[in-house]
What we know:
This is 12S rRNA N(4)-cytidine methyltransferase METTL15. The protein is α/β, with parallel strands linked by helices. Helices cover about 40% and strands about 15% of the residues.
Amino acid sequence: MTFGGGGHTKAxxxxxxxxxxxxxxxxxxxxxxxxxxxxxxxxxxxxxxGRFSELEALLSDMSIKPGTIDAVLLDAGCSSxxxxxxxxxxxLSKDGPLDMRMDGERYPNMPCAADAVNTLDQQAxxxxxxxxxxxxxxxxxxxxxxxxxxxNPITRTQQLASVVAGVFPAAVAYxxxxxxxxxxxxxxxxxxxxxxxxxxxxxELHTGLCAAQAxxxxxxxxxxxxxxxxxxxxxxxxxxxxxLSNLDHYHFSPxxxxxxxxxxVDERKGGESLLWVPVRKKVITAEKEDVEENPRGRSxxxxxxxxx
Length: 308
């Protein structure tokens, strides 16, 4: 969860000779790669086309009962394969159609990023940028998008990137840095917010965590890799047993953390989760060598827990 380009799956296959991997991905392009890998490892890779929210049904179709899976690796967000293909519309550094649908053409009528940018009103756009991009300048950017689309529809990635960059003076744009203190494009958070919105990523992540929880056997292990704070806060609170049943856009802001009550916690044991035992108390982040080998992993966070 998800298969992506298959890097994790190949590592698992090479490390554990007797393992069978159920390779889930919502992207038909990724499933094509999984099917090729399945041919190379007869019977050890079983591709599953679907979203996290469809996992429970897919396992049922395979006659796999709840509580029987040994381990789940959940790798959230966008895959490198999707980012590298300009025609998918995820990358602001490569010009392509403003698409961002992880499902590809699987659902032709599903709204894409261009639909959101050109049809939502200014307040809705600002809310998306604030909730999913944690963008402090959401109102200014939303206003600029509405003004620009009155002249021409925004249909290309670099067209949108230019609109967002135009909101800021050069001095401000120069000051924005990423986690490695490198210059970051002013539209990075806008692209993240639109991608999460279009693909309903936070709801899918929560549903995927619940599906993994149901699928794992007692003693089974869940490992989750996230790439931004919204995802990581969700995973952290899920593993602590907090009640996330009323998921909404603002559920994961730090300010709301204290207002959320635990549903699966043991108050007699200091609020420990009734369902999970953490493998480590602290989150695992990429080492310097990891980042040098794979710069996209610089913001990755890994949390692991064992099912009670």
